Amino acid sequence: MLLIGIALGTVYLVWGSTYLGIGVMVEDMPPLVAAGTRFLSAGVLLGVILAFRGGWRRLRIGRVELWSCALLGLLLPVLGQGMVTVAESGGAPSGLTALLVAAVPLWVLLCRRLSGERPARAAAAGAIVGFVGLAALLASNGLTGDFPFWTIALVAFSSVSWGFGSWYQSRLKLPRDPFVTAVYEMLTGGALLTAVGLLSGERIEPASYAASSWIAWAYLVVFGSVIAFSAYVWLLHSAPVSLVATYAYVNPVVAVFLGWLVLSEAVTLPIAAGGVVVLLAVAVVLRAERPRRPAAPVELLEVQPQEGNSHASR
């Protein structure tokens, strides 16, 4: 239980703080190149760690698996985290960004519904309420926000991409080792982000970046992309999924608090109200989707009298 608590706390705090890290990083660094080199470096670092522990053969994958990892690299690091980085570079507050990204479980549920699945009624109702809260966040901040509307629209798009990628991942042929999947996912996504950034006119000028931006970049590489992800993968194998999934509505609270504390981001009434609605809806969806324990066999519930003993056997 202690290790589970430490791992869960790591995912809560580190992933919640990555929105602040991105906001500090893009104060000087160009967003696409910064995000691209972040994932490239994290992929190389994680790959070296895996090779050190299991040999280079551990990283061998087939062509189909590589293409599947590349597709995930497009959907998650590029269109997911990459677009979040661009949005924060354009002025989107880190706290509001985290609240919009918190809607990922709602998009996953919508993908499942469109694919023919029938989620629980409570989950569907929670998703509807969540989308109402999401629309309120977009509408209120689009009309009165002190930042361009396209930035939060881009964050909403990144949330959709992350949700679709999370849902579609189980339908792809991927390496058995999820850490190996993460290596190639980050390498391909990072390479694409870096290439698009350079082709769009961004430049790599290390000497012109402030120390705070470099610290934020290094934090995102080591803690955000390697340590927290490793803790998350370990939790999926060691703790109930319903417990692990709580990161979806804890991360935004951490992000909003840190954005207010460090970057002096305003927490307006529309942001607070819309955020509460979205987080409550996500909590309802995750609770409704929690797998239930199978009922105990009837014979185990019946009293089995024994000779000389009237108590039920255990």
Name the features.
about 75% helix
Descriptive notes:
Helix 2 (31-54) runs antiparallel to helix 3, helix 2 packs across helix 9 and helix 6 (121-144) packs antiparallel against helix 7. The radius of gyration is 22 Å and the shape is globular. The chain has one domain (2-290). The protein is built from 13 helices and no strands. It is 74% helix and 0% strand. By secondary structure, the protein is an all-alpha fold. It starts with a helix and ends in a 13-residue tail after the last helix.
Annotate the secondary structure layout.
Blueprint: H1 2-25, H2 31-54, H3 63-89, H4 94-101, H5 104-114, H6 121-144, H7 149-168, H8 178-199, H9 211-238, H10 241-244, H11 247-262, H12 269-288, H13 298-301
Largest β-sheet summary: none
Secondary structural class: mainly alpha
Helical coverage, percent range: over 70%
Low-confidence stretches: 294-314
First-residue to last-residue Cα separation: 26 Å
Rg is 22 Å
Average pLDDT number: 84
What is the domain tally?
1
Total beta strands = 0
User: Tally the helices: what do you get?
Assistant: 13
Shape: globular
Summarize the helix and strand pattern as letters: HHHHHHHHHHHHH
Report the β-strand fraction as a percent range.
under 5%
